[in-house]
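Read as chain and fold; for instance:
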Amino acid sequence: MTGTLRRLEALDREIPVVIVGAGSMGKGLFYQCCVTPGVTCVGIADLEVERAVACAEMMGRPYRRADTAAEVAEALERGVVAVCTDGALLAECRGADVLIEASNCIAPAAAFAIAAIESGKHLVLMNSEIDLVFGPLLAAMARRNEVVYTSCDGDQHGVLKRLVDDLRLWGFELVMAGNIKGFLDRTANPTTIVPEADKRRLGYKMCTAYTDGTKLSIEMALLANALGLATPVTGMHGPRAGHVREVFDLLDIESLWRAHGPFVDYVLGAKPDGGVFAVGRCEHAYQREMMAYYKMGRGPLYLFYRPYHLCHVEAMECVAEAALDGRSLLEPAAGLRTNVFAYAKRGLRAGEALDGIGGYTCYGMIDNCTPGGSHPGLPICLADDVTLTRDVEKDQAIAFDDVEVDQARFEFDLFRRCQAAARRMPPR
């Protein structure tokens, strides 16, 4: 029995959790809250409230539709799940210790996150978009309010962080953190993706973002900003491989590490499907002898990989760590070391409106920023409902100066505040 499980089973009071977003991730998180000892979901919100209702019914949990703060409070008092359309009602409510943000929106999700922090809740982000683009600001706000801000466990960046923690505990120096991407098509859009999305029961924009590489870049940027890593090239290399073990033949890892320091990258189409990996370094003769004996190679570079990541299934570990220990699994301790910027998915013309992550107009690729988080590119997480002021050719970067921006718009103001928070962070 793990230490976390033992502690959860011994609790006198379950950890009350609220969830915003009842899509594929939110549904899984609700399930996991119901089956994990010591954790319970007391409220779930979604604009399509039927999805939230379906979560409660799937698990046989009594629920009440709540459209006001008073109705939420009454549901929590009665011990039934509060089901809402407005995530703010749960973010601001009393009676919950943790909010998990699992929607796929930007500005509303950021507002929910801020409200949760200010109401004294720990914030767990399965919404990797606001995690990336507003992370340093949300982390600073959480510290001021003495709550935890963390990326969610189970997604690639969270699983990679645990793998990196292990190899560092064992005395290895981190050289590379890697993802395994099954398929990549930069031109994918919500129309071409329909058969695959329907097969996987995913939203069309979400599945597009997985397929065009945007989500991959966001995950690796989150890890880079947590650990102070770099990308060796814009978008990473991503060589095609049959198995992750081929990475030493496909990338000159030693040279890349010496040029850039510890870095992020990925391999494409490799086994094991859904896995993650890291490369560690050890020069000591004794340890190298033992690693050879353990069939890990002659070194000094060693490959450690995990053949799966299980998203919601693994998520409750970081919820428990936040609530019981005040500990964050992963947050942008290095500031905005990297970000993910918009590139034209097709030839675009002045006057066109961009449609954001997983849309028809742009995809995102990771790139390094200045130490203060500056970069001329338009962050992909802000590339929605903004109008181009010039033509942009296919696969060309879209700059901040290429779009009309309402400087007072909530998410753009928040991003400026995030950059300022990142600049105040001590260098790593």
Remarks:
- The mean pLDDT is 97.
- The chain has three domains: 3-126, 156-310, 338-423.
